[in-house]
Every structure is written in C-alpha cells, then in structure tokens.
Amino acid sequence: MFELTGYHALLAVLGVAVILAYWLPRFFSGREPAASALLIGLGALLFNWAPEARTALDPLTSPHGWEIASELCLIFGLFGVGLRIDRLANLQRWLPTLRLLIFAMPLTILGVAVLGREVAGMTLGGALLLGAVLAPTDPVLASDVQVGPPTEGGEHPVRFTLTTEAGLNDGLAFPFVHLALAVAATGLITGGVVTEWLWRDVAYRIVVGAACGIAIGWLLSQTLFRFPRENALAKTQSGVFALAGVLVCYGATELAEGYGFIAAFIAGLTLRRVESTHEFHIRLHDFSETIEHALTAMLLIAFGAVMPGLLTHLDWVSAVIGLGLIFVLRPAIGWVSLHATLLRGRRRMIVAAYGVRGIGSIYYMAYAGSHTDFKNEAELWAIVAFTILVSTVVHGFTAAIAVEKATGRSAAEDPAG
Description:
This protein has a single domain, classed as Na+/H+ antiporter like fold (Up-down Bundle). Helices cover 72% and strands 0% of the residues. The chain contains 16 helices and no strands. α5 packs across α7 and α6 packs parallel to α16. It is globular and about 60 Å long.
C-alpha cells in the first residue's frame, strides 16, 4: 500500500524551493541570483498547504531548534570568512573595520534600543535585546560584497572592510545580548550588573574567544601542513577537515566560556597564515561554504514558512524601527564612524549602508528566547523577521551591483587598494 507522509512531502518542498530560488532568476539576469529573499518568499508560499508545519516551527514556542540551526550556519560561515582573507595588511587597512566595530555597532545598538524603548514602549531589557540582535551584520548572507575565495587576491578596501566587519561583529554583539538578558532578569541596570557584565561578558569571554581561535587555528595548521611533514594531511585533499576543525574550535571555546563565533573567525584567519598560498586552503573554504550554503538554504525556507505568523505581531511602529535601522541608523552611523579612514565618497557610503541582517539576528533572538522570557517577545520576533525580509530584498538585489561599480567587476578583479 502506498503511504504518503508529511516528512517526505517536507523534503520534497525543501528541494523544490532551493531549486526554484537559484533557477528562476536565470531567466531575467546573467548575474548570480540573490537567493536569500527568494528562499524566504518560496518558504512562505510553499508552506501555505501545511499550517501544522508552521506551528511546529514557530520560534516563539520552539526557539531551541532555531538556535542550533542558525548557530551551525554561523560557525561554518565565520570559519570560511577567516580563510578568505589573503593578507592581514596593516593597521591603516583595518582602521575602517575597527571604527565600525568600536563606534558603529554600539551606537547602532543604542539607537535601536532608544527606538524600542521610547517609540514602541518596550521594556528596557527587550529594547536592549532588540538593539543587540539587529546590530551585527551578517557573514552568511553578505557573500556578494565580501572578498573572494582564498588565493584569489584583489582584496579591495570596501570588500575587505565588509568582510572583516561581518567576521567579527557577530561575536562582539554577544556581550550586549548578555547585558539584555541580565537587565531582563533584574528589571533595571545596576552597578553590580554592569560590573559583572564588563569583566565576564566583555573582557573574559572576548579574550578567551580570541585566544582559543589563535591557539586552535595554529594547532590545526600544524596538523594539516607540518606534522608529519613528509605525509601531511593537506596531501589527502579531504575537505572534511574543515568540518572537524571548526567543531573542535567552537566547542572547546564555548566549554571555556569564551565566544565561539570570535574563535571560529580567528581560527580561520590563523590557519590561513600557515602555508598561505597552499591550494588546500581553497578546498577547506569550498567544503565549509558548501555546508554553510546547504544549512542556510533550509533555514531561510523554514524562516519563510513562519514569516506570515510572525508578521501578524507587526504594527506600523515596529515596521518603522526596522526601516529606520536599514535606511537611516546604519547608513548615518556608519558614515560618521568611517571619518578619517581610507574610504571616501561612494566607497564610504557603500560600506556604511550595506550591513546585511540575517542569520546572526535569528540566532541571537532564538538564543535569548531559549534562556529567558521577554514580555515583548512576539513583537521582537516580528521586528527581526520584518527587518531581515527588507534587508534580504533591498541589500540582496542591489549590493553586488553597488559594490561592483565602486570596486570593479568582481572580488578577484578588484585592485588591491
């Protein structure tokens, strides 16, 4: 007897959605498609027939699954981004990145938090969480504006800045998420809360994350390229090492109470410094990117499936917060933060404006939902979902064109400076 199961239908729908998201745009443009928005849209469309699946996937009631799935996407994405950087260059080249991390991200968190508190009437903890969730740019969905794969060169300052910012700010947003959780638990910001936050969530966890990334990245490089020298692992051409390496790095760092996202990026960066021109780095990057793309595609389809339900909690005030972040706050704060750097004119505007929101925001929102209850949780998810949807559409369909006009046809063809 033939048996139809919801599970097999789900697999078929997922496959159809991924194929359509990458195939349909080829009828309209020779450019590689910005598939993120299409994956979300197709998820919403194709899951119309399965309301029970939408209920099961609802992040308001089942945040832990979203936390795990988005976490895996991010750690593979961050490790791959670290591998992409061909040369570390000098402080002047890193100055735009440092300014975005030190000034733009905290100011963006503050700006969104003020909007959430004063305009939307959220609790202090909820407003802080919203700022922390929406502040980091995405290393997974922003590949169109990043530097090319390992050894390709052509690391234009615009692409270099967008790549390194996305590589670091997911981990650096975590202290603010922890602060929001602490404020939500106490209801206010006290001296004790701030003191504990500064030494534990800011100082200790960032230092441990960076140290673990350097140490484990170096150990992985020695295992790959140096010992045994005459029969090194790099000769096997097995990209599965990327999977094992990033899992070791992330897991060990989290066990030490450090930030695994910082460690994953720095491990890739450190690993790349050893035998930096070796072709095995390309295989590691490609394997990591393949896993990341597969996980991301399924996650975005599922996000599209729950999007209609989440947006029922959206009102015009909440929509203004998301639109204000994308079109006003991030561009304005980014522009000011990039003062006195090598970036000028159009290049400065592109770096300021193209901060894609995506998987990182999903992770932090799910992480917070798994660890505490927020009074405004449904509204928070609605704002995050709306902001990601707008970002994937606006940034996804314009970023590649804008960056190409400012820097060259592709990452590989960009001049080095």
